[in-house]
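so my prof wants the structure for this chain in the tokens format not the other one, which i didnt know existed until like an hour ago. anyway here's the sequence
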Amino acid sequence: MKPEQPVAREDAGLTAVLSPLLEHDIEAIAHWYDKAVVLAGSPVPLNDLLDSTSHRRTLALTDGTRQEPAGLMVVAVNDPEHSWATVNLLAIARYDERDVAALAVALLEAHLRGEASHIRAAVPLEVGLALYFWLRLGYRPVVSGERLWMISDLDA
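here's what i got, hopefully its the right format
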């Protein structure tokens, strides 16, 4: 995946674009970030998300009608090993009643095809909705160490 290239998709009347997080997105995201539905990982200070390593990508999901970020994803490529991608954070603005999170994951899967064969997402044990969310998308639970991961094979 080339991080500078956005990916767009229309689903049920929602046009969404998944693209790299830019500095001007921070102000719009700051309004909802702390209260967002966090489906994977734990919140990171918003300004820290701009400092990306070569294998970590912070992506903003933009609702085509609003032109401002409705979601945020942090993904590590080749983590924990080659051909894997780990979703470290998925946060969606609560104001959007459509299933933006599912659309974001579908965009990510399309974006990673050819670069990763497997995706995993950490499921916080205190957020039961997260387990249901990933199951609904076809991910399977795997316990590794003391963590619960939701895993999908992109090549299947």
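also thought this was worth mentioning. The first helix runs from residue 25 to 30.
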